[in-house]
Write a structure and sequence with these properties.
Strand content: 15-25%
Shape: globular
Structural class: alpha/beta
Number of helices: 7
Helix content: 25-40%
Largest sheet: 7 strands, parallel
């Protein structure tokens, strides 16, 4: 596990953007694992900039997102499908047919989860996966539990996660209580993983992760310790040594 400490969120985003830009340039048909939320937005802006100013080509790129709320359609402004279009896909030359977000409106959600993992495998697996980390140590929507799913699955969101995500909704009551998420096993199959964190609120969990020598379902991010190629990029506020 490699740790890179940058000055601030902007520097974290720039460094992450440079890594993704290099990987895309080396392999035009690369398969990207993408995340939503506020953390990766800066990185997406760097990729958009690289496309517009340097001609970074996304025409052969395939993407798979970590998660989606159950019950929200892609045209819902609070869905992650809508988020990805707004924050990245609409601004680059990617083929929308090559972008994948779990179907929150699927009639058979369990079958949808199985097909999602199969689609990732058929694409050759994820080459590089970006992750954020929750204050409770969750990655994607894999919350601290007695057990964690290996493959893509349906999860109940914790009250703390619902509260954090409520900032994107008009009220807490509107926040979906369940989501589809890549499982820990699906995430760990990515060839390379980049975890981003910034701000003082993330400092305690980053410290716990970096000082951990154990894997536990109570700290889902600890499973990243098992992966051979993980880079954590944090700003100075999130890193307390």
């Amino acid at each position: 596990m490699k740790i890179l400490v940058e000055k601030d969120y902007e520097a974290v985003s720039k460094k992450a953007g440079e890594i993704f830009k290099e990987e895309i340039s080396k392999k035009p048909e690369i398969v990207l694992g993408l995340a939503t939320g506020s953390t990766p937005i800066g990185m997406y802006k760097e990729l958009i900039k690289a496309h517009k100013e340097e001609g970074l080509d996304f025409s052969k790129v395939k993407t798979f997102n970590l998660d989606e709320y159950v019950g929200l359609s892609k045209d819902n402004p609070n869905s992650y499908g809508y988020f990805m279009d707004t924050e990245l896909f609409n601004h680059i030359n990617i083929d929308k047919e090559n972008t994948h977000v779990p179907n929150g409106k699927a009639e058979n959600v369990e079958e949808c989860c199985k097909e999602y993992d199969e689609s990732i495998a058929e694409a050759g697996g994820i080459d590089i996966q970006v992750l954020g980390i929750g204050q409770n140590g969750h990655i994607a929507f894999n919350e601290p539990e007695e057990t964690l799913s290996v493959g893509t699955n349906i999860v109940k969101l914790t009250e703390s996660t619902i509260e954090v995500n409520s900032r994107f909704f008009d009220s807490m009551d509107e926040v979906p209580k369940t989501a589809i998420t890549m499982g820990i096993g699906t995430i760990l199959k990515a060839k390379k993983i980049i975890l981003l964190a910034s701000g003082e609120k993330k400092a305690p969990i980053i410290k716990e992760l970096l000082n951990s020598n154990r894997v536990t379902t109570k700290l889902p991010a600890s499973f990243l310790l098992l992966h051979p190629d993980v880079t954590i990029i944090v700003d100075e506020k999130a890193y307390k040594g």
